[in-house]
Amino acid sequence: MLTGYGDGYYQVLPTLWADPVNATRQSLVLIIVWAHGCLGAWFWMRGRNWYPRYFLFFYSFAVLVPLLALLGFAAGARSLEVGLPSTAWFMPVRTAPEIIGQIRTSITAGLLAMIAGTLILRAIPVRGKIRVTYPDRAISVAKGFSVLEASRAAGIPHLSICGGRGRCSTCRVRVTEGLERQPPASDAERATLTRIRAPDNVRLACQLRPNHNLSISPILGGDNVGLKAQPTEQQAAGRERHIAVLFCDLRDFTLLAQRQLPFDTVFLLNRYFETIGEAVEASGGVIDKFIGDGALALFGLNNSIEDACAQALTATTRIAKGIDVLNRNFMSELDKPLRIAMGMHAGPAIIGQIGCSKASSLTAVGDTINAASRLEGFAKEYDAQLAVSADLVRYAGLTVDDRESYNISIRGRTGTLETLIVQNAEEVEAMMEANRPPETPA
Ligand code: FES
């Protein structure tokens, strides 16, 4: 009414269509707005159990809707070009270019003013800063910042897997001082904290906007969530070698996974794998693969079987100590400490690049691997951290005479395998120390 323009399809479509710039702009806006909506929906749905089942449906929907809309836009505009009868809602067009020009200028000026206002407000020093104290430093941020934003502004690594939406809990912090003066948790924050059974002094950094000074300590480290080291390709493809094999498995993992949020489970698993990977590599071995919550490590791809067995034994102690550290770090997050079971055996194995195309990797196959895997199962049966074959212990130059051993039969293998059960793998270090030959005086 104000402009004298009718705003029905009969006016808008030809106007947009007649000018290629307008038509392109309209199409781009449609795609951008739709993609933005899809992104939001994807963030919301991606963690749900049912999402993978319906992925194809959502994907088709996301692609087809804008495609059909653009086709409809083109078809509608072109049909109007050839002329259609007017309808009752058709409003005759009266051009009023001056008014349109004024409106356009006002809108553009308004938008520019808002952008400039935002930039100016950000540049003005804000009174009433909040001091956030981390375990190793203190920073000041303007009131209204969340703790997560404060970390980011100060360049402090802070984990936030869901992107600050209060859903993953990976950004959570323990508030060690000043909690009582902070705003209470919102319903969404409370729901996430309740789900992980967080203690009262734990808050989500992405949701907590402190209004008084506080001291915090991030619970999950922000340095990384993945493995630092991956196995490197060895120059041992396609040959038989005598190697030491270590199987390691996390006990009761299914139970643990049920009680944790998926994000926490992935985080914890990565930390656990990192611990195993570091222990194995520091001892001289390589990780062959991670399978579920288990790991297969090989020693001796490029050195003697004697050295390989000594390295594998050293790795078990390092792993046990690493798991202790993990348990200490995650004490408040876990109902029960993490427990591991390890099985080790030494003998011949075929080493080679196995698989096809991108799914191939350097791996070891053979009876020695199966036996190590079976021994890992025995460690669980005996509620011990380690079941190691006497062969491996002897290769490493240790004596087994004063230790109780079990003769275990292994499916597919003739005879039995003499095996030692070690309740705590940290004992292995003492075993190795006791067997070290006395130093000869110079
Ligand atoms: S970043 Fe996911 S809950 Fe805060």
Q: What is the number of E strands?
A: 13
Mean pLDDT over the residues: 82
Largest sheet: 8 strands, mixed
* Relative strand content: 15-25%
* CATH homologous superfamily assignment of the largest domain: Nucleotide cyclase, GGDEF domain
Which bin fits the share of residues in helices?
A: 40-55%
What is the domain total for the residues? 4
Describe it for me?
By secondary structure, the protein is of the alpha+beta class. The protein has four domains: 9-93, no CATH class; 96-123; 129-218, Beta-grasp domain (Ubiquitin-like (UB roll)), CATH 3.10.20; 239-435, Nucleotide cyclase, GGDEF domain (Alpha-Beta Plaits), CATH 3.30.70. It contains twelve helices and 13 strands. Strands 6, 7, 8, 9, 10, 11, 12 and 13 form an eight-stranded mixed beta sheet that branches. A five-stranded mixed beta sheet has the order 2-1-5-3-4, covered by helices on one side. Strand 1 (129-133) and strand 2 (138-142) form a beta hairpin. Helix 1 packs across helix 3 (51-81) and helix 2 packs antiparallel against helix 3. The chain starts with 8 loop residues before the first helix and ends in a 7-residue tail after the last helix. Residues 86-93 and 222-237 have low confidence and may be disordered. It binds FE2/S2 (inorganic) cluster. FE2/S2 (inorganic) cluster binds at residues 160-162, 164-171, 204, 206. FE2/S2 (inorganic) cluster is lined by residues 160-162, 164-171, 204, 206.
